[in-house]
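QA checklist item 7 of 12: single-chain prediction sanity check.
[x] sequence parsed
[x] length recorded as 124
[x] structure emitted
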Amino acid sequence: MLKGVSSVALLIVANCFMTLAWYGHLQFHKIPALARFGIVGVIFISWAIALFEYFFQVPANRIGYEGNGGPFNLFQLKMIQEVVSLVVFLTFAIFVFKTEKLAWNHLVGFSLIVLAVFFVFKKW
């Protein structure tokens, strides 16, 4: 149980860094010191942020993987990653970046991904 919780907690932290690396640069126009960077500068800043993602993502997968004594197989780890990624993205888009409004079609799409988790975790 502890390995599963630790794995998910590390995935949450990793996804915060991933969201900042992938989408944070779209907010650079709001910060004068960052707005002057061109695409190459933005790429390097995003890589620097993504490096921290890997400091958490790799241990999360190693701890959670059943081959290392964790509770999850590869398919389950991937599905957990996708749901965590969506939850973190939604949180950042709505509450941090404040650029998006959540609509019913987004909820339907995300619900289908959560339904996919059910099918991956279900023992048939």
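[x] summary fact logged: The two ends are 22 Å apart (CA to CA).
[ ] second reviewer sign-off
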